């Protein structure tokens, strides 16, 4: 794991994150580059957005994380540097700064991270005002005896750790989309709660259909997992959560075993998609356990998707085929450097290996789309 940092270094990292992590320089948390010899081929896997956003730099998230890992940076620090690309890039409206806000127009962020070699973890939920919740999650791991801090407590902790707290993490784009959602939902606000919930969902989906929102941003999240040549495995997940959620709603992303699980002896798994479905089934934990029993990353992931399908029984969550009417994907890597992306329906995921960054097709459980 990375060296213990001084408070001064930490404060610099928290307040100047856009420069220290968003730029090409090595992160403050990293170890010095070192030659590595092992049979494990390093790899980084992530949700599709891991190979899209560069935050004005030259590298996508998986590229950045992979390059840092192969230069000897601690795997978790490298992965967090990778997801910082998504958190900080104003064009990414599902993660961090500019993530789609909750029903009150406030951006609330969730994240967790796990360090396989040291078996430590940290998380934050419903955090407001900090662009990089993944770094606050890492600070929980580094500086506390706890795993999960939420809401005002999480923000107070971040402030005390030297993170910059901003009044509003909306961008012009996320604020504009929230206003459009309000306009579409407003006539329904006085219905009974069930109808209002449905109307809210329908308004959100209609904005996806109208091309205003990237479907990936509706539950927008990045999960990123990696292994270095020594077989050290880590993972991080960070999100602005479900668009227009009830304030205080926390999804799967910051919950160990759901949005992320890492066992340094086995591998890592994390998710994007409908968090509630994952929370009911703790799929990241399930996937790691399946790998422990000998399954490949792909087979372990497919088992989790089948579990979600089996436990999805409410009619409102089923499509015309009687299958789950939502998307959910898992990104998986084992200690040997084998990896997979799996999804309920067709989706893509990001990978970086010695061959460079790639966007690959996830293995789908079902053909077609969630809405078919
Ligand atoms: N998977 C992200 C969320 O449901 O919040």
Mean pLDDT: 87
Please report the first level of CATH classification, the CATH class: Alpha Beta
Compounds present? glycine
Number of helices: 12
Radius of gyration: 19 Å
Strand content: 15-25%
Q: How far apart are the first and last residues' alpha carbons, in Å?
A: 46 Å
SSE succession:
HHEHHEEHEHHHHEEEEHHHEEEEE
Largest β sheet strand count, sense and barrel closure = 8 strands, mixed
Count of β-strands: 13
Shape: globular
| CATH homologous superfamily (4th level) name | (Glycosyl)asparaginase
Helix content: 25-40%
Unreliably modeled segments: 1-37
CATH fold naming: Glutamine Phosphoribosylpyrophosphate, subunit 1, domain 1
Secondary-structure content class: alpha+beta
Strand order of the largest sheet: 4-3-2-6-5-1-11-12
Your description of this structure?
By secondary structure, this protein is α+β, with helices and mostly antiparallel strands. The protein has a single domain, classed as (Glycosyl)asparaginase (Glutamine Phosphoribosylpyrophosphate, subunit 1, domain 1, 4-Layer Sandwich), CATH 3.60.20.30. Helices cover 34% and strands 20% of the residues. The protein contains twelve helices and 13 strands. The strands form two sheets. An eight-stranded mixed β-sheet has the order 4-3-2-6-5-1-11-12. Strands 7-8-9-10-13 form a five-stranded mixed β-sheet, covered by helices on one side. Strand 3, helix 5 and strand 4 form a beta-alpha-beta unit. Helix 3 packs antiparallel against helix 4, helix 10 packs across helix 12 and helix 11 packs across helix 12. The longest helix has 17 residues. It is globular, with a radius of gyration of 19 Å. The protein starts with 6 loop residues before the first helix and ends in an 8-residue tail after the last strand. The N terminus is likely disordered. It binds glycine. Glycine binds next to strand 8.
């Amino acid at each position: 794991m990375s060296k213990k940092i001084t408070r001064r270094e930490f404060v610099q990292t928290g307040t100047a994150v856009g420069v220290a992590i968003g730029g090409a320089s090595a992160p403050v948390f990293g170890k010095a580059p070192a030659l590595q010899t092992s049979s494990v081929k390093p790899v980084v896997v992530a949700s599709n957005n891991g190979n899209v956003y560069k935050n004005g730099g030259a590298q996508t998230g998986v590229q950045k994380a992979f390059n840092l890992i192969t230069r000897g940076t601690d795997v978790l620090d490298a992965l967090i540097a990778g997801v910082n690309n998504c958190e900080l890039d104003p064009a990414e409206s599902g993660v961090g700064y500019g993530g789609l806000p909750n029903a009150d127009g406030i951006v609330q962020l969730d994240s967790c991270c796990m360090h396989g070699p040291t078996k430590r973890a940290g998380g934050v939920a419903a955090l407001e005002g900090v662009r990089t919740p993944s770094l606050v999650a890492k600070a929980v791991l580094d500086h506390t005896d706890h795993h999960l801090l939420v809401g005002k407590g999480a923000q107070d902790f971040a402030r005390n750790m030297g993170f910059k707290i901003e009044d509003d993490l909306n961008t012009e784009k996320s604020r504009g989309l929230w206003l459009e959602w309000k306009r579409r939902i407003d006539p329904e606000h006085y219905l009974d709660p069930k109808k209002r919930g449905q109307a809210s969902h329908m308004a959100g989906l209609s904005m996806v259909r109208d091309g205003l929102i990237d479907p990936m941003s509706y539950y927008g999240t990045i999960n990123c997992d990696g292994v270095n040549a020594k077989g050290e495995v880590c993972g991080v997940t960070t999100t602005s959560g479900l668009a227009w959620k009830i304030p205080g709603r926390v999804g799967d992303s910051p919950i160990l075993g759901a949005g992320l699980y890492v066992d340094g002896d086995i591998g890592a798994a994390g998710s994007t998609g409908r968090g509630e479905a994952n929370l009911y089934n703790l799929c990241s934990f399930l996937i790691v356990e399946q790998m422990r029993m000998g399954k490949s990353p792909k087979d372990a992931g497919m088992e989790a998707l089948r579990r979600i399908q089996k436990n999805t029984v409410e009619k409102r969550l089923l499509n015309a085929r009687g299958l789950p009417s939502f998307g959910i994907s898992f990104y998986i890597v084992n200690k040997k450097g084998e990896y997979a992306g799996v999804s309920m329906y067709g989706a893509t995921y990001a990978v970086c290996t010695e061959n460079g960054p790639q966007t690959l097709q996830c293995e789908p459980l079902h053909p077609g789309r969630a809405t078919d």
